[in-house]
Amino acid sequence: MIERWANETALRALHRKEGELMQAQARIDALERKLAVVESERDNLAAVVARDRARIKAEGAAYARQQAEAEAMTNERTGESLR
Fold first, then answer.
1. Residue in 46, 34, 50, 71 with CA at minimum distance from that of residue 58
2. Whole-prediction pTM
3. pLDDT tens digit sequence for 30-42
């Protein structure tokens, strides 16, 4: 009788632990899904930043070219007016 009671008590404890493990696994699964979403958003933002950096670099180069051309034109005009 004591052995049966001990077995039933152990079995209840085992089922309780099994339930706790299932809940913990469900929380882990939910957190992994959230992490996947966050990682995806991070990757998307990284792509936006890379694209913006490339655009800014290209715009800076275009501005430098325009400034150089404008300066060259000014120098040509100044040289012509000095002659």
1. 50
2. 0.60
3. 999 999 999 999 9
∠ Cα 78 79 82 (to 5°): 85
pLDDT at 9 over 80: yes
Tokens of residue 53, six digits? 């950096």
Burial state string for 48-64 with b = 16 or more CB within 10 A and e = fewer than 16:
eeeeeeeeeeeeeeeee
Helix boundaries (H) for the chain: 2-82
Q: How far is CA 10 from CA 14, 18, 26, 39, in A?
A: 6, 12, 24, 42
pLDDT > 90: percent of the chain:
80
